Amino acid sequence: MTLRFRSERRTFLRLLGLGASGLMAVPAGIFGGSARAQGERAVRIALLDLGALPESRVSGVDALVQEVIRNSSVALSATISRVSPSSPSLFEYPFVILVGDQGFPAVDRTVVDNLRLFLRGGGTLLIDDSSGLEDSAFDRSVRRLVARLLPGQRMRPIGREHALYRSFFILRRVAGRLVVKDHLSGVWTGDITPVIYSQNDLLGALARTRSGDWRFDVVPGGTRQRTEARKLGVNLLLFALTGNYKLDAVHVDTLLKRMRRQGGYGR
Amino acid sequence: MSAGESTTELLFLPLLSPWAWVVLVVAGGAAVLLAWRSGAGLRPQRRHLLLGLRLLLLFVFAAVLTGPHRVERREHRERQPLVILVDESRSMGIRDMDGASRAEVVTGWIRDLREAPDALPEGVDLELFAFSEDLRPLAVGGELDASGSDTDLSSAFLGLREKLGDRRPAAVLVVSDGVDRGALGRAFAAEGKEGLAPFRSELGAPVSTWTLGATKDAIVDLKIVDVHAPPFGFVRRPMEVEVDVARSGLPEGPVRVQLRAEGQLLSSQDAFVGEGDSDTLTFEVRPDQVGFHTYELSLPIPEGDVIESNNRREFTVKIVRDRTRVLQVSSRPSWDVKFLRRLLKTDPNIDLVSFFILRTTDFEGELARREELSLIAFPYDELFSQDLQGFDLVIFQNFWFGSFAGFSDTHYLQNVADYVREGGALLMVGGDITGEAGYGDSPLASVLPSLLPRAGMTAGEGSLKPTEAGERHPITRGLLGRAGSRSGASPGASRLPTLGPYNDLGAVDAEGVSLLRRGDTGQDVLAVRDVGRGRSLVLASESSWRWAMGSDTVAGTDAYEELWRSVLRWLVRDAEERQVQVLTDAENYEVGDPLSGQVRVLQTDYSPLADASLVLTARSPSSPEVLLRLEGTTDSDGHFEFGYRPSEVGTLILEAEVDVLAESVARAEARVSVSDGRGELANPVPRPDLMEGLAAVNDGTAFSTEPPNLAKLPLKRREDLRLSSERAQPVWNHAFLLLLLVTLASVEWILRRRFGLR
């Protein structure tokens, strides 16, 4: 390997260390400068407004955004919009979050069509049930809505092999403010999972007060469970941005070896 | 001609049909019966006399009706031909007889025969025939052009029998090098001299042979024995070509073998081949474009080389695109990255390698230890130093080396620039990091269509406007057509989908072409460039993903896919876009092999175009002479089938032109190479053993060094006579017979009167 450095030897050693441990990072200062400071960030997310949005969880979305900004290279806008499912603005936000603790009435046909177009066009819908109940009114409303959005596609548990469990952190458990279900659920179209459903009040685990304290206690796992919930939040957004990238990455070595074997190897 | 002998015969040619003879016999019997009964009252002597006269009359009459002819035949003893069959195939042109070709030696010998007629045996006439694929009479003293493609002795004997008819030669002399590739040669190769038994000539004359040419060791020849090239190759993938080199009659030493394409030297290697041995060299070529690539392998021509034509060989390889290999790198995930990756992943013809930089180093460390991160080392050195040439397309999507590594990226950017010049494709998609990278000051500037100054993004959205080039360019014309069709306006006049925020592309290079501009500011948004053998494209925005989501009502949900697929096709020079295609069943043929081909014609929507008139021509790249011209129309599948049998060594361009299509898409061509690797010159070493076997099985004599003395050839003289004339004169109409009939009838009538009968 031939490298020509303009920075100091320490940078080189850090790169080697990151490479050896399977990491690659963006040095501080490169993203933290003007590019990020220019206001209009490329990645925006929104809350899907079905009329029963618990305000206590909005701060959880803010916290999620901050976790992503702090930990990843994603230029995520800190402004969280609220978007109506019947609005054309829905298509400006490929990642929308539906959070609630109460049931909501059946949406009209226009909403269904719009949301279906959104999901099939590449959008991701994260649903978070903050009621803390396994069979809540919100849960029943969600399942009724999803059945109409993607007819014939059943909501089912997301297995541990799914890319979202390694889209940024390696996750071994699913958590939120509570652990109502030990798994996430989802709906697939092909090998894409456009709908992801958490019943563990994920945003409740991330929500903070104005003073920066945690808004809710996390039970039964306490701090450790909250940390897992924060990591899950980051993973969900990174998954929405990168899809199966991490699973494919496993195959990159194989692909490169095949290229070399077939001769696509520069000599 | 010798003195004749005559014979005379009587021949009967009946004047009546068989039915008339039946009637005549019945009538004759009745006449005899009447004659006998009418003389019932006469004395027996008289009665018997009249009956005898009647019978004699009838006999003479019947004899006349049998049509007697007198036939006179004259016969003679004819002079027999002494036939000399001279090989005029290409191997006879080899100059291995003290500087003269085999054909020239034969020509001189025949000329000497003309000047010394006494050299012939007594009583025979000399008849000469030249043979290769066909047999033709050869005048005594005529020239041999040694241009026939094959030596086929068995066919020559069959042809000779036809030419001679019922004449029988006294002897046949075959003059050849024995390089027989027909049935006789195959039988000899399989079973030796025993295999020649079925080839005993039916001419009934001894067949002697004279073998021309030097022995194998004395032939000076450096040659390409064979070339092993794949039937097709993949663009930008190495392709191996093996060449077998052999030599004889030359001192040992390295032989420089050169590989050229379009006259340009690609590679050269030394072959080390011993006397009478062969060596195989392997060349590697990396075609950078799809289509037909013709290569030439050549050897030097040493002094005394008896066959110069086998020192070079052309071959054609059809280069197609394998799965398109795409490297997508981005310094940060974004919706734009997600949607482009999603599109690329859904294309089964694309192998995608993506690398995204996911995290910063100002990691606060409270969430997890590093080992809990699912991050992958970015193999930048492997990708941009070792494996770069294996990709068809490299996508820098909001990417900058400096965003993740604090070292100079000049080396890698120079590699990418070289990669593009050598036939690769570079797609640069905008974003904040693209603006920060300052590629305009990097080695990449030399291959980008615009200067791309270091600058931030310009906020806001704006409608797009095609440039003049953009209205015609394959990347944008589909998009313009879509916009036009959706709004009902003419293409290009309608509103295009919006984009934004924008990067500053800077000034478009003199070799670059701008295709899209902002409608409000006029700033370039999309520019392309052909550079070296590669291509580059810059899109100054990272918001085209919005078209995929269907948020732009003008774009619709298909505009995104249409734009990017057009971009990919253009960047990697996809050949499948062509509306006219010429296909052949192979790319390399031997002289005389049948070539089968097909012209496929598609409409602009790529459905088959039936009943399209077209003209197909074949010509050499080095000559305007048209070797083949066919006119026809396509069938219901848009196909036109054709066949051809190339007769010349070299490369052929098969070009189809379809009348009804626009000029820019109406033509297509294919290339094939024609060689003579399996022809007679592949192994022109004389085969005296075959010639000896042929003479032995036909009771002849084999000559191998000195010209044969014709006077001493084994002959088979014919003793039988040949008919020279035959005359048939009718006898039945002779006056004597008529007089005899009248006399007999008169005598009978008179006697009947005298005997008192009526």
Largest sheet properties of chain A = 7 strands, mixed
Radius of gyration of chain B: 46 Å
**How helical, in percent, are the residues of chain A?**
25-40%
Q: How would a textbook summarize the main sheet of chain B?
A: 8 strands, mixed
* Spatial gap, N to C terminus of chain B: 66 Å
How many DSSP helices of chain B? 15
Alpha plus pi helix count of chain A: 8
Low-confidence stretches of chain A: 1-39, 263-267
Main-sheet strand order of chain B equals 17-16-19-20-24-23-22-21
Portion of residues in beta strands of chain A equals: 5-15%
Low-confidence stretches of chain B: 484-494
Percent of residues in β-strands of chain B: 25-35%
Summarize the structure in words.
The complex is a heterodimer of chains A (267) and B (758). Chain A is 37% helix and 13% strand. Chain A is α/β, with parallel strands linked by helices and 267 residues long. In chain A, strands 3-2-4-5-8-7-6 form a 7-stranded mixed beta sheet, with helices on both faces. Chain B is of the alpha/beta class. Chain B is built from 15 helices and 34 strands. In chain B, strand 28 (613-619) and strand 29 form a beta hairpin. Chain B starts with a strand and ends with a helix. The chains are: A alpha/beta (267), B alpha/beta (758). Chains A and B meet through helix 1, strand 1, helix 2, helix 3 and helix 7 of A and helix 6, strand 17, strand 18, helix 7 and helix 9 of B. Strand 1 (25-26) of chain A pairs parallel with strand 18 of chain B.
